[in-house]
Specification:
By secondary structure, this protein is α/β, with parallel strands linked by helices. It contains 16 helices and 22 strands.
Length: about 500
């Protein structure tokens, strides 16, 4: 299936694109910056510059089997009149443009999945809601109604329409959870307002699976609530985050403070919807995460998936780099990938795919012109952001053994040493991949303190995201079912 998608570089879009590629679909993305999108979406996605206007949009949609519309300016932020106009334009106007492009296509798609939100229902207290429930009457509800009405025009073109009303999406890299976890890690978490408002949450992996199911299953048509089966009150969400992180969660954010800071937009945080996934459950959709605690433990408790130990002289006897720059720490992570070795290695050999496995908060951007022919001696320049600090990174490919192993080293960047070995081994029709990173941080004893409290946890989260991205793209298997890769020797042959 050829799939056209807007909003591909957003929080949900990045996850969904990887999942579509895993299904074997070809993906064509409508993006505002081709270079930035390439760094975020990788080499496998066809990119269309949104600056081309209506004619380019019509040409991009023509011949596609499915259209996914996820575009929309973020809701959170003070709603000035100008901001409200942008919120409407980024949703309603673009949706109308998409329908017009479909109308003019010689070969139209058979299905369109258009995002909406549970804000459609307004603030409904403890009332149980499903897809048959009436719309609310506040600004967000009216926006969602107009958004969905614009999409419904496509039904007259004999295109099946799925109006996906998305709840609070929980994921590692963006979305609501990221904003809640930052203060919670410091022991500053707690409910907002009364805490009695219901939060219709869903794990991002479940949302992506639901979207894929809706594309291919004709039983999905009309409104579909993109929420999990267990909505909870805001105070329970805050308490569970604190419990999972082992932090207190009693610092309530007063309603008046939110209203003072956000004005009318505070309603999006102080109101709630006890929305249930009626259509998904009727169609037998199997949620992987049915409880909030299970979802949060998956997202917040696997920072130890990558083990970090003292290097203790570990190295590679054939590495001149490690002779010059002595490592202090050794990070390892092994993943059993549910795809054959040739396919996996082909993905990892393409430098443009580096950004796919990097959290968006790091703002990864390749500066070396692409495509890049990766081989021993290849140098690649890119920029990243560590917290608020932007910095350049130059990497060099020290070893290149196609189908088996490659090593990249940091020539210039934030670490005193960074030697990253990627090793691959076939395991039947699957692939075992092990990352081994030998690294050192600068600034002596101060660097060691920063490593313990900041760098090591950050690397754990980065490699957890990397593993999730690999899982979305290829699927991952339990290591116990596949067998662990033969441990790497600290001294590999030169």
């Amino acid at each position: 299936m050829r799939v056209f998608i807007t909003g591909a570089t957003g929080f949900i879009g990045r996850h969904l694109v990887l999942r579509l590629l895993r299904e074997g679909h070809s993906v064509r993305a409508w993006v505002r910056s081709v270079s930035a999108a390439r760094s975020r979406l990788g080499a496998e996605v066809e990119l269309v510059d949104a600056g081309g206007g209506a004619s380019a949009l019509a040409a991009a949609v023509d011949g596609c089997d499915a259209v996914i519309n996820l575009a929309g300016e973020p809701i959170i932020g003070r709603w000035t009149e100008d901001r409200k106009r942008r919120l409407v334009s980024s949703r309603v106007d673009l949706t109308r443009d998409l329908v017009a492009a479909i109308r003019g296509a010689e070969r139209r798609p058979s299905v369109m999945l258009s995002a909406s939100a549970v804000g459609f229902y307004g603030d409904r207290g403890s009332e149980t809601l499903d897809e048959r429930s009436a719309a609310g009457d506040d600004f967000l509800a009216e926006l969602c109604v107009r958004w969905e009405d614009a999409a419904r025009e496509v039904e007259a073109l004999d295109v099946r329409l799925v109006r996906l009303r998305i709840g609070i999406v929980l994921g590692r890299d963006g979305g609501a959870l990221e904003a809640m976890v930052k203060p919670a890690r410091l022991g500053l978490g707690g409910p907002m307002g009364s805490g009695e408002q219901y939060i219709p949450w869903i794990h991002v992996d479940d949302l992506v699976e639901l979207a894929v199911a809706a594309l291919g299953d004709e039983r999905y048509a009309g409104a579909v609530n993109g929420v999990g089966p267990d909505p909870v009150m805001n105070k329970e969400l805050a308490a569970t985050i604190g419990q999972v992180l082992g932090r207190p969660s009693f610092l309530r954010v007063p309603a008046f403070a939110l209203k003072l800071g956000l004005g009318e937009a505070a309603a999006a945080l102080l109101g709630g919807q006890r929305a249930l996934p009626g259509v998904a459950q009727e169609n037998g959709f199997a949620f992987r995460f049915t409880t909030l605690e299970a979802a949060l433990r998956d997202l917040l408790c696997d920072d130890d998936a990558a083990s970090i130990e003292r290097a203790d002289g570990a190295g590679d006897a054939g590495s001149d780099y490690l002779k010059r720059r002595k490592p202090t720490y050794c990070l390892r992570q092994t993943v059993a990938i549910d795809a054959p070795l040739a396919e996996v290695f082909d993905f990892f050999r393409r430098a443009e795919n580096l950004g796919v496995m990097t959290p968006s908060s790091m703002v990864f951007d390749i500066k070396t012109p692409t495509p890049i022919a990766v081989e021993e001696g290849t140098t690649i320049d890119y920029t990243i952001r560590l917290g608020p600090v932007p910095m350049g990174w130059r990497t060099n490919i020290e070893r290149w053994e196609p189908g088996a192993r490659f090593v990249d080293v940091q020539v210039r960047g934030p670490y005193r040493a960074w030697w990253h070995e990627h090793r691959f081994a076939a395991a039947g029709g699957r692939t075992l991949m092990e990352d081994r990173v030998l690294y050192a941080v600068p600034f002596g004893w101060l660097g060691r303190l920063v490593h313990r409290w900041i760098v090591a946890p950050m690397l754990g989260r980065i490699f957890a995201f990397r593993r999730q991205a690999i899982g979305l793209r290829f699927g991952v298997a339990d290591l116990a079912d596949v067998g662990r890769v033969v441990p790497m020797r600290d001294a590999a042959p030169a």
